[in-house]
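FAQ: What does a multi-protein file look like?

Like this. Sequence, then tokens, then the next protein.
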Amino acid sequence: MGIGARMAFAPAEKITDKADVENKPAKGRDMKSDPGKDDAPATHEYLKLTKQFVVPVVAEDEISALVTMSLSLEVRPGMAEAFYEIEPKLRDRFLQVLFDHANTGGFDGAFTHSDNLAALRTALLEVAKKDLGQDVSQVLIMSVSRQDT
């Protein structure tokens, strides 16, 4: 096969920024002396639970509010497949923690106070570690809102 045919059928290189197009190092970054983020192995990966959690807040035997929350997990890289295989079980356990938190007044008043959310994160992390072990290092609260009824 000739050189022209090899060039025509060779896979195209992915262009990531303008410096790649111009075949020059990016301004302000010496490519040889600064390895950048891509060279260091990632220490964590973030996995988002696929759906929001909806937690009823009950007062005087009636639903007084609904709390919606989105959660993600900080895990070691490569855990995505194991995480998504057990996500239904994990969601069930997380819901129980969230219901218990609501039933003890955790979503009343200043429910976004840092001490209150830290206690919730700790309880959720304990549950996550039952299924994922030490591969999970944090539970991240990505969003939380309360709608009074």
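And here is the next protein:
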Amino acid sequence: MAAERTLREAHPTEQAVGIAYYVSDADGIGGRLRESPEDFRVRELEAFDAESLDADRGSYPELVLRATLRDWDTNDFARRLSDALGISRERVSWAGTKDKRAVTTQLFTVRGAEADDLPEIRGAEIEALGRAGRSLSFGDLAGNAFEIRVADAVDEAPERIADAVRDLRAFAGDGEAPPDDEGDVPIEATVGVPNYFGQQRFGSRRPVTHLVGLAIAREDPREAVRLYAGNPAETEPDDTRAARDRVDAAFGVGEGSDDADRAAADGAGDGDWAACLDAIPGKLRFERSMVHRLADRGVDPAAPPDDEDWWHALEAVPSNLQRLFVNAAQSSLFNRMLSERLRRGLPFDRPVVGDVVCFAEADAPEELYAPDTDRLQRVDADRVDVVSRHCERGRAFVTAPLVGTETELGDGEPGEIEREVLADAGIEPADFALPGEFDSKGTRRAVLLRTDLDVTFEGGDPRFAFALPSGSYATVLLREFTKRGPLVL
């Protein structure tokens, strides 16, 4: 067993979703993100080919666009584009949803549209690239390239960034340190951090989706509904907290001195779902949808936790949110496995006996270290050295499970960590054999997020440039430098 490490603890909000530590012990640079949209630039790295603009419309009905958007939510832009073209929003597709407070460059496809019909839209530069035989989907996004400025960093930012880079370079398996030059000099290095799921996966102000998903996996839809519709957070407005308090009372959860004192629903509540609907503001539309179903059926709060009526209420939300609940549960367990691996001092850049590795994506853009989790290999004692060399060259990656029904856990100490985390959560792989959209076979995910980092300085403020594969989080890297809570990031 590897020696356990003394590590800097993460922010309490991060710890709640399984992110227990920082890799680097360097002091943070502070600062703020997204002071303006130009401070956060994202460019998609696509894996999608287009034919020429004069390609046959019958075989290639999709118009392929590249749009650079300033201060646009992706969904809102798609709606504005479809309205301007006079077509259904369902005819506009894209590969990855981006945050609003940013400048983003990404592809869209529009079924049946013509390049000459493209509108002018405020805050958008739109270029017609060609035509395609199918619409874009999430699988067409290989990754994202980022340029992120941190405003109002501390005066010692260059020195602190250099200190953090040394730690992250070693973590990535590259022992060479950046230069010790004084002043605002550029820093270029290959760095690595644990490939945590960022706070956005769980809700930044009210991290609850993973708790709902864990309740679903335990076949307790009553508690899943209660956690989502009730269960107030201190960061919420007063009217929202009051509404959630009322829902908790209907389920049978008493008010404690703080949120930590709240227990699970015991079925002894008043079941006054009509009063709950009166209290829940319209902005909480999914919560209202769940409670409406309880009211329509007059569900007794003492009904068995796995009663069909609770499942019916839970399924009031859209199918993508149903899947997100389970995905968030899997993600929180994955984060906990990585934190325990970090605490025990096991390497992330190379395997130990019992690990399961995946190999690199053959067609990934040159900028990316991109794992292909469809190609897996279990590492025994005879293969450790060979596979370690593959990992060193970026050809293989150590993985941990996003647990589902088809998950095969690791062996040795990695398998011990996986089993301990699942046992502590009261979860087994078979528990993800669930109804409808909640069912999940599971997969695996690389434990190390490695990237080529370039840091420059503008007026004392650092600008971080790097690329990440699809599904990884820029904030997971930046938190190592800022050492600030997720609400700031």
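Q: Is there any per-entry metadata?
A: Some entries carry free-text notes. For the entry above: Confidence is low (pLDDT under 50) at residues 256-261.
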